[in-house]
Amino acid sequence: MPISGLSAFGWGCLSAVSxxxxxxAGLRWSPQSKVVSTLMAYGAGALLFALTIELPGKLPExxxxxxxxxxxxxxxxxxxRSIVGMATLSGFLTALVIASV
Length: 101
What we know:
Helix content: over 70%
Strand content: under 5%
Number of helices: 5
C-alpha cells in the first residue's frame, strides 16, 4: 500500500505529539527520582535495541556494495560495539542513580 505525503505528514504529527505532552506532564507532575530513572532506563534500552536491529540490517547491501570485507568487519565489530554500548549505558545509568540519591 503506497503512503501518500498527507498520510506521512499525519503520522509524523501524531508521533510528534509526545514531545509537548511529555513537557506538559513534566510541568504539571513532579515524579519521584525512581520513576524518572526507570523511564530513562527504558528509553535507553529501547534506543539500544533499535540501533542493534538497524546496524546488522544494512550488512547485506554493504556486502553487495563493498564485498566480503564489509561483512567480516560488520560481524567482527559487533561484539566491540556491544561492549562499548553497554559500558556507556552503564556509566550513564550509574551517574543517574548517584545523582538521584
